[in-house]
Design a protein that fits this description.
- With 296 residues, the chain is α/β, with parallel strands linked by helices.
- It has 2 domains: 162 residues, NAD(P)-binding Rossmann-like Domain (Rossmann fold, 3-Layer(aba) Sandwich); 121 residues, N-(1-d-carboxylethyl)-l-norvaline Dehydrogenase, domain 2.
- The chain contains 14 helices and 9 strands.
- The strands form 2 sheets. The protein has a 6-stranded parallel β-sheet, sandwiched between helices. It has a 3-stranded mixed β-sheet with strand order 7-8-9.
- Helix 9 runs parallel beside helix 14.
- The protein is globular.
- The relative contact order is 0.10.
Length: 296
C-alpha cells in the first residue's frame, strides 16, 4: 500500500514516521521542508506538491490545522481530488466538524474516491509513542482496508459508523478534555490558596472518582509549570468553535462548553494561544490573584 501524508506538523510528523518505520512506502508533502527532509532521511519519499503525493499514492492522509486547509488540499485545481487515481482512499485525520467531513465525503465521491474521517486523541506525546486513540467514520469495508495504517499510528482504533461520526466523536472528546482542563485548573488554584501542596493533592485524588487521563497527563505539568505544548490552547479553541458550530446546527445547547470556550478565548487574548492547553491555569490564577507555584 503506497501512502501519501500531507501535513507534517506537531502531530503529523510523528504519525508519518510510524508509517515509514512500519515499512509503508510513504510519500510526503508539507510547506515545512525541514519536516519533509527529516522524514526523508528515515526512508520517506519527499514530494514537491499535493499533486505529486496524489499521483504516487493509493491512500492519502491529511493532518492539517483546520477545515479550510483540508478543503484547499483536496479541492484546489492541483488538489488531491482531481489528481488521485479513481478508487483511491482519502483519510482526513484533522480535527474538523462532522458537517465538514460529510461534505468532503460527498464531494470526493464525485471523483470516485473513498473517504474516512479519522481524527485522533492523545496529543503529541501519544503521537510520538504511536499510541493515539483513533476514531474513524466511513464505510466499514474501506475502514478495514486501511486499518493497518491506523494500527501503525495508534493503540486504540474504533470504527464509529458512517462519514462524520469520527469527527463527532473527536469533538465529544474535546468537550470532555476542555472541561476537565478547566476544572483541574480551578481546583488547583483553590487547593493551593487553601494551603494544600499540589503534589499532595494529586497523590490524594488521582485514584479516586476525580482521577482521569487528563489529570494524569496535565497535573504534573501544572505542578512544574511546564507549559511546553503537547496540545495548544489555540488548537483547543479551534475545536471548541467547531463544537459550537456543529451543536448549533443540531440544536444542542452547550452551556458548560460555551463557558469553557470563553476561558480559552481569554488566554488567547492574553497572548497564550501557543502554550499547552494546561496553561488555562493562568486564567484562574489571574481571577484569584494567586500563583500556585514558583516553579518555572
Amino acid at each position: 500500500m503506497k501512502v501519501g501524508f500531507i501535513g507534517l506538523g506537531i502531530m503529523g510528523k510523528p504519525m508519518a514516521s510510524h508509517l515509514i518505520n512500519k515499512g509503508f512506502q510513504t510519500y510526503l508533502f508539507d510547506l515545512n521542508t525541514e519536516a519533509v527532509d527529516e522524514l526523508s532521511n528515515m526512508g520517506g519519499h519527499p514530494c514537491k506538491s499535493n499533486q505529486e503525493v496524489a499521483e504516487n499514492s493509493d491512500v492519502i492522509i491529511t493532518m492539517l490545522p483546520a477545515a479550510k486547509h483540508v478543503y484547499q488540499v483536496l479541492f484546489s485545481e492541483e488538489g488531491v481530488a482531481k489528481k488521485s487515481k479513481p478508487g483511491n482512499t482519502i483519510i482526513d485525520m484533522s480535527s474538523v466538524s462532522p458537517e465538514d467531513s460529510r461534505e468532503f465525503a460527498k464531494e470526493l465521491k464525485k471523483n470516485n474516491l473513498s473517504f474516512i474521517d479519522a481524527p485522533v486523541s492523545g496529543g503529541e506525546p501519544m503521537a510520538i509513542e504511536g499510541r493515539l486513540a483513533i476514531m474513524a467514520g466511513g464505510e466499514e469495508v474501506i475502514f478495514n482496508r486501511v486499518l493497518p495504517l491506523f494500527e501503525a499510528m495508534g493503540e486504540k482504533v474504533v470504527h464509529t459508523g458512517e462519514s462524520g461520526t469520527g469527527s463527532a466523536a473527536k469533538l465529544a472528546n474535546q468537550i470532555i478534555v476542555s472541561a476537565n482542563l478547566a476544572a483541574l485548573s480551578e481546583a488547583s488554584v483553590y487547593a493551593s490558596k487553601a494551603g494544600l501542596d499540589l503534589n499532595k493533592l494529586f497523590e490524594a485524588i488521582r485514584d479516586g472518582l476525580a482521577g482521569s487521563a487528563v489529570m494524569d497527563a496535565k497535573m504534573p505539568m501544572i505542578i512544574e509549570r511546564n507549559f511546553e505544548p503537547g496540545g495548544r490552547i489555540e488548537t483547543n479553541y479551534k475545536d471548541l468553535g467547531n463544537i459550537q458550530s456543529s451543536a448549533n446546527a443540531l440544536g444542542v445547547p452547550l452551556p458548560v462548553t460555551n463557558l469553557v470556550k470563553e476561558i480559552f478565548s481569554s488566554e488567547i487574548a492574553n497572548g497564550n494561544g501557543k502554550m499547552d492547553h494546561s496553561h488555562v491555569l493562568n486564567f484562574f490564577e489571574r481571577m484569584a490573584n494567586h500563583r500556585t507555584s514558583d516553579n518555572e
